[in-house]
Each structure stands twice: as C-alpha cells, then as structure tokens.
Specification:
Layout lengths: L3 E3 L5 H10 L7 H9 L3 E7 L3 E10 L4 E9 L8 H16 L5 E4 L6 H5 L22
Amino acid sequence: MNVKLVYRLPTIEEYNLLRRSVEWPEFDVELVKRALSNTLFSVIAEVDEGVAVGMGRVIGDNAIYFHIQDVIVRSDCQGTGVGALLMKELLAYVDRHSGKNTNIGLMCSKGREPFYLHFGFVERPTEKFGSGMIKVVSD
Ligand SMILES: CC(C)(COP(=O)(O)OP(=O)(O)OC[C@H]1O[C@@H](n2cnc3c(N)ncnc32)[C@H](O)[C@@H]1OP(=O)(O)O)[C@@H](O)C(=O)NCCC(=O)NCCS
C-alpha cells in the first residue's frame, strides 16, 4: 500500500467516513465543522490519489496542554504501520510547540493502550495520577 501523509484537515465527509469505518459514532455536521476548525494540527494518510485512509489531529492550547485526538486508520488498512506514521507526525508537531512540563493527553479506546505505549504514553492511574475522568453530554 502506497501511503502519502498530507498535512491538512479532513473534510467533514472524510471525518465521518473514517469514524464510521471504526464504528465510532458520527457527529452533527455543524459540530464537526466547528471542531475541525479549532484543530491545531492535522495529518491525513492518503492512498490512490487522495483517498483518506487515516487521520490524526492535535487540539489544545498550543503550549502547555495538548490532546491527541481522532487517531483513526480505516479498518482494512490497520496493522500496516499507518497509525505509527500518523502518531510520529502528531508528536513531532507537539515537540515543535512544547516546553518544559508540557502535557500531552489522550483518551484511549478500550484495548488500544499497547499502541500508545509505543510512543511513551503511560496508562493511568499511576502512583502520582488518578484514573482521569470523562463526561459525555447526552443531548
Ligand atoms: C489504533 C490504531 C490507530 C492503530 O493503527 P494501526 O495502523 O493499525 O497501527 P500500526 O500498524 O501503525 O501499529 C503500530 C504498532 O502498534 C501496535 N498496535 C497497533 N494496534 C494495536 C492494538 N490494538 N493492540 C496492541 N498493539 C497494537 C502494532 O502491533 C505495532 O507494533 P510494532 O511496531 O511493535 O509492530 C488503529 O487500529 C485504529 O484506527 N483503531 C480504531 C480507532 C482507534 O481505536 N483509535 C485509537 C483511538 S484511542
């Protein structure tokens, strides 16, 4: 598979298509539009003249707190190194904009922890950190 990394936002359609391919819920178009426009950095893995098979983006305050979000590789392209290529680009972006004690967070899908361990992330809780918490708005 010939994969090309492109530094751009996904289109709304690409975003929802990639989410659907990994059975993640889709969001309303207006929400996606606003979310994507507030992205700090986005990278897309393309094959066959621009077909997006993977994406990842960085959100946050661009200095102290960064969050890795929407790391997705289309299911039929998983396990071929695309996810790792995307992560390297996301972390390189953070590296260029971070300082001492900068914090890179992510919400890991269940079972995907080993993927992120490759890139220096640690599983919470640790001796110092609690579990981390989340609240999903239902309507
Ligand atoms: C998680 C995901 C992004 C990984 O992408 P990928 O292209 O399949 O991963 P890669 O082929 O680049 O794998 C990189 C390394 O991570 C490992 N890895 C990838 N997924 C893994 C998993 N679920 N469990 C354990 N190890 C995993 C690979 O074995 C590989 O290790 P190696 O370098 O020692 O061989 C992809 O499976 C995906 O999109 N999943 C659905 C969406 C998702 O859960 N995204 C993560 C959000 S938290």
